[in-house]
Every structure is written in structure tokens, then in C-alpha cells.
Design a protein that fits this description.
Layout: H1 8-31, E1 40-43, E2 54-57, H2 74-90, E3 94-95, E4 103-111, E5 119-127, E6 130-138, E7 145-155, E8 161-172, H3 177-192
Length: 200
């Protein structure tokens, strides 16, 4: 008498293969970076900024207290400065250091609680009274949002705030400086996408 072929090993292999595919997809998703940040905007609708062509950075007086729990990271700050200047240049604005500009740009980072991006993925299947379950953490437990970016634009002549954008979680605790460059540049482009107001 020929014993019937047992289906469980093949089913187990299929389940293990499915788990491997799901783990790979989740891991790759975590490695490809974060999506565009959730940018918050506000502006003074009474001010016409369509004539703005030039800008400069707002210089803070020495000893100015850090707003919003600012953290001191000169490398990250310089990364944001470069990203802002590149994004404004792409929109046709130029920096005016020797003549009065049309508007002033003020940037500051805001510290936020760290948030782990690690998630757990599980898969279970059974055969009659038997069952098998497999679970594994995916993502990077060390990569966490460490701060948000705030950009403010002031009219140079009146020195009043005319536009503001905030990108919570835009500053990532990335281990790779090139990855951090790309993350910050993407966040800044998303923030300035709606400047001037009514343009995107």
C-alpha cells in the first residue's frame, strides 16, 4: 500500500517564502526613506509677496534664546541652510548680501521626542491540530525623528512675518550624512513648494 503524500512540507515552504517576501518588502520600505513630511503653513493674506525677488538670512542677535527647545547641531543647521538656498534659487530668488533684499528668511530647528520606526511583522498558519507562527521586527530601531524644521519669511521693509512653514519630524537621526542631505533637501522643497502663497 502506497502512503499518501503529505502536503505539510510544501505548505510550510510556501508560508516561509511568503514571510520572507513580506519581510523583504517591509525592510526595503524602511530603507527607501520617509515620505514627504506633513508640512503646516500659515501666511498673511493681506501682504502681496509676488514682487519678491531677493532675500537674505535673518541674523539673530548674540545670546538670543533658542525658541521651541532648539538643539545645537551646526552640521544639521548648515545642511538646512544649503537646502533652503538651493530651493529658493530653483524658484528664481537670489540672495542679496550687499543690497537691501525683499525678504528675510529665518530658520530654526525644534526638538521633538524620538520615535522609533521599528515595527513587528508576524505570520501564522496551521494544519489541523498543528500550527506554526513566525514573527520578526523590521525596520531600523535606531533611526528616529529628532526634530522639526521651522521656516519664517519676513518682509524686509516692515520686518513683519508674512509666511511660515513647519515640517515636524523632518530632521532624521540618519547615520549616513548623504542620506541626511537627501532627507533635509526633500523636506525643504516640500516646505517651499507653497511659497509664494497660491503657487505649488
Amino acid at each position: 500500500m502506497i502512503a499518501p503524500t503529505h502536503p505539510r512540507p510544501r505548505a510550510i515552504r510556501r508560508g516561509a517564502t511568503l514571510l520572507a517576501v513580506l519581510l523583504a518588502a517591509a525592510t526595503i520600505g524602511g530603507w527607501t526613506g520617509c515620505s514627504d513630511p506633513d508640512v503646516q503653513y500659515d501666511y498673511d493674506a493681506r501682504v502681496n509677496v509676488s514682487g519678491y525677488r531677493s532675500y537674505d538670512w535673518l541674523a539673530e542677535p548674540a545670546g538670543t534664546p533658542a525658541p521651541g527647545g532648539r538643539f545645537d547641531n551646526p552640521i544639521m543647521n548648515d545642511r538646512v541652510f544649503r537646502a533652503v538656498e538651493a530651493a529658493l534659487a530653483a524658484k528664481g530668488y537670489h540672495r542679496s548680501e550687499n543690497q537691501a533684499p525683499d525678504f528675510l528668511v529665518h530658520y530654526y530647528p525644534v526638538r521633538e521626542p524620538s520615535r522609533s520606526q521599528q515595527v513587528h511583522l508576524g505570520l501564522g498558519f496551521g494544519f489541523g491540530p498543528l500550527g506554526l507562527g513566525v514573527g520578526a521586527p523590521v525596520g531600523d530601531p535606531h533611526r528616529a525623528a529628532v526634530g522639526g524644521i521651522v521656516l519664517e519669511i519676513q518682509d524686509f521693509r516692515t520686518r513683519t512675518l508674512v509666511w511660515k512653514a513647519t515640517a515636524p519630524g523632518a530632521l532624521q537621526g540618519a547615520d549616513d550624512p548623504q542620506e541626511a542631505d537627501a532627507d533635509v533637501a526633500a523636506a525643504v522643497r516640500a516646505m517651499l513648494k507653497r511659497f509664494p502663497p497660491g503657487h505649488s
